[in-house]
Design brief:
The structure is a homotrimer of 357-residue chains. By secondary structure, chain A is α/β, with parallel strands linked by helices. Chain A has 3 domains: 7-130 and 287-302, Rossmann fold (3-Layer(aba) Sandwich); 132-283, Rossmann fold; 316-349, no CATH class. Chain A has 12 helices and 12 strands. The first copy, chain A, has a 5-stranded parallel sheet with strand order 7-6-5-8-9. In chain A, helix 1 (12-27) crosses helix 12 (282-302), helix 3 (50-62) crosses helix 12 (282-302) and helix 4 (84-91) packs across helix 5. Chain A is globular. The model of chain A has no long low-confidence stretch (mean pLDDT 93). Chains A and C meet through strand 2 and helix 4 of A and helix 2 and helix 11 of C.
Chain lengths: 357, 357, 357
């Protein structure tokens, strides 16, 4: 059985096929409107995320399927102390496919150990959010016309933004990609992204602090939000914040063919006036996201009998607990600490992939 | 594309047709049970309202359609600071029709600016609640046999009760209507309702404080709840409250043909013993409400390609913020203050219709 | 019209038929997948219970029906002070069948007074939870091969565990049943269960404190959770807790044919390592639960025109309020206290069945 926990669980060929199928669905919705009749999707959202949940639910309903679930953990048995393992085990006995979102990193890996049906990670803390990346890739492919030969600017909070890390990981598999990483010093891209993804794949990149100065070279501008809470020094935030707001004035320096993406929700990092610019494709991006989720659900249901695509990392039980405070292994009861050695011989947590000191 | 934000967005002819269709549905439910197959309704409830939400959801499901949404703002991206504008824009890319409820007045007018599908106001603070009024009108038409030639008593909190204001507005368009406005002095009908609706349409009315003394003349009695919180002087509330409770004793003085309506939920303003009286039609009213919502959904989906019925009031951007503390324009980010001049040359907020000082 | 409020509302013959139908559904799901087309189930959960709610919702969807409802009281009109009576009255005007869960004991009996459609009790406080017992019975029948000739161990919190009381009540109607009641002294089975169920039906039982010593004689082991909060003396809890945890070591002393059940969610009263033991059937139990709910929904919809099966106990209005602090009659407005005399001439509350002092 196949699952989707990390965008890298899918080959570039599989992603290309998902994009093709999603475009076919978009053009021929009636041919798909009964294809999942009598199939049930559970949307298990241990933390709220309306955008993602409604996208999944609308996707399944548009395939003729049915939906059930919960939209936050208070409404779930988790409030009574139930483990992720048991919840997934039980619900997977009721339904045909599960999309789960959880605030703890690595939670879907716990789910995969007991699920009896395909499992989709709809976001696990700051770790992964692969269906957002699928939406991003479909948007780039359809709006820019290609997934290679692109100069991609990513702007905002590059330190904590998991969508940014996933996007960089996913795009690093295409030819002739380069990145312009635009952020304040406080929120620069983490070392592990540079080392494990960019350097390893020989992807050119530069780190800059000015959106204004770098926008003219970009084919893609991927905007994200800068959160005030991230700054130790509020004055620093106030001084910086406007330089990371995309407005009509900054758009004037951009290429005619540049496309602006944003994972949404936005707060004020893109001025509303930009919405009218044809290069602003972030609302289209949500529609691509729905069609990609439809294609993904179809794929996973179809490939239910194929072997698992989740790399059973060469893990062993460890006596040492994961030191990532957001890791699922610290709260899930009776979950043994598991670790693996990555290609660079670094010992990592099998759930959240954090380095074990 | 047509929407429903205010009951006055519908002509009396359209309302009559909705009643006819709703009655046809009630008598022939099977003929409608697949009519919305593969159509999706989003119920976006930024504040909880079970009654209204379940009525909409059951209505859509009874038409063979599908439903998704959220039941309070905590479960929505709004908690992350997303604007109404963006939420409606995105969700309208997923579904075929939207019913939204919001605690802020005028919020659906913001939604109309970006929605790509028909939008129904399922209540915006103290402003409008047009589908409740549709339920009221269908109940009066079916139970009293007519929408004209009626003496209508409205009793309780006439100051803050939006359903009362909407009902008076809607009924003022029919012939030979008069109102008996029954309330304590603290909760009398506001001046603007008298001036802008009753006087303008030459509708006779009187204001009284005793339900007992006036019940005998009524064809319709529309009950509402009096909330303790509305009174500055609790002793005053305690002295008054029983005189606004409808009980079997007071019903004895009413006409045999009088009908009692209530928008529900009731707390104790109608004694449970009255439920058995055949003149009590407030539970039937909820069923009429469901069928009217079915008729409305059908109408809006059918007339999707017709021009908008939302009067683009002759608005202009104002430098002055709306002074209504409940207005959406005070909280929605980057929403410019817009105003218009009404027929009496009074300057009003384009969102919540409050007078701008 | 038939309802299900208490497992004893069903005869053993009806339960047997439900098991047969549920097994037929499990083997032939496609033959049932449209059987409830255009029927609506309302899941009215005045307190959260994901497990039970998702089981009901998946059951109805697997029958081709539709689902609407709410998952906690905050999202309901109850927050505005609406009575259970009115909520059930209104919702039963929208849908075909209702499953309700409520934190107050006896709440479904209030619902039955006004519902227009079949009502299922999905748990009312510490009172009843009959669909859990249906799941338990189907599990025992299918996994142990019979409902009679069984030595049944129930372990854990026997004082407050409503599932335990219901199971004992239900099993007491079968031949040659005996119980081993395993609990700490603080959490022994209440006197009324011994007197009114066990003694009355001449069921042999013994009360013991050691799971380890008694496991070898059991055909069925029904585990429940012991909550720390139940203990006045925390040291006592800490001393005891491990002896009520089922682990691989204790399982070694059990019969090869013994079956372990648990109503779930479990916290740590069954070690995860036991999950792999083929005698652990608590996850299968949840699947049996779904099929039993499907069978129950079918039965109640089919028997809609039959007379009510809810014993209209010979009640009379009482001037004395029920003294059970969890009784619905203390909070539901305008609900008269009703009492009845049971077979032993004890005066009981008609809602929660508590003895009236």
């Amino acid at each position: 059985m196949k699952h989707l926990l990390n965008i890298l669980d899918l080959s570039t060929k599989e992603i290309y096929e998902l994009i093709k199928v999603s475009n076919h669905i978009a053009r021929n919705p009636k041919r798909y409107q009964n294809i999942c009749a009598h199939k049930q999707l559970a949307t298990l959202f241990f933390e709220p995320s309306t955008r993602t949940r409604l996208s999944f639910e609308s996707a399944m309903l548009s395939l003729g399927g049915q939906v059930l679930g919960f939209s936050n953990a208070n409404a779930s048995s988790t409030a009574k102390g139930e483990s992720v393992r048991d919840t997934i085990k039980v619900v997977s006995g009721y339904v045909d496919i599960i999309a789960m979102r959880h605030p703890k990193e690595g939670a879907p890996y716990v789910g995969v150990e007991t699920t009896q049906v395909p499992l989709i990670n709809a976001g696990d803390g700051g770790h992964f959010h692969p269906t957002q990346t699928l939406a991003d890739l479909a948007t780039i492919y359809n709006e820019a016309g290609r997934l290679d030969n692109l100069v991609i600017g990513v702007c905002g909070d590059l330190k904590y933004g998991r969508t940014v890390h996933s996007l960089i990981g996913a795009m690093s598999r295409y030819k002739n990609i380069s990145f312009v990483l635009i952020s304040p010093d406080e929120l620069k891209i983490p070392e592990f992204v540079k080392k494990d993804i960019l350097d390893k794949n020989h992807i050119p990149y530069k780190e800059v602090t000015s959106l204004e100065d770098s926008i003219s070279k970009l084919d893609i501008l991927y905007m994200t939000r800068i959160q005030k809470e991230r700054f130790l020094d509020i004055k620093q935030f106030d001084r910086l914040k406007d330089s990371y707001v995309l407005d009509v004035k900054k758009m004037k320096n951009a290429k005619k063919s540049m496309k602006v993406l944003h994972p949404l929700p936005r707060v004020n990092e893109i001025a509303v006036e930009v919405d009218k610019d044809p290069r602003a494709v972030y609302f289209k991006q949500t529609v691509y996201g729905k069609y990609m989720r439809m294609a993904l659900i179809l794929k996973l249901l179809k490939e239910k009998k194929k072997p698992s695509n989740i790399k059973i990392k060469d893990t062993h039980i460890s006596t040492k607990r994961c030191s990532n405070p957001h890791c699922i292994s610290l709260v899930e009861q009776e979950l043994e600490a598991k670790v693996y050695k990555d290609e660079n011989k670094i010992v990592r947590c099998a759930y959240c992939d954090a380095e074990i000191d």
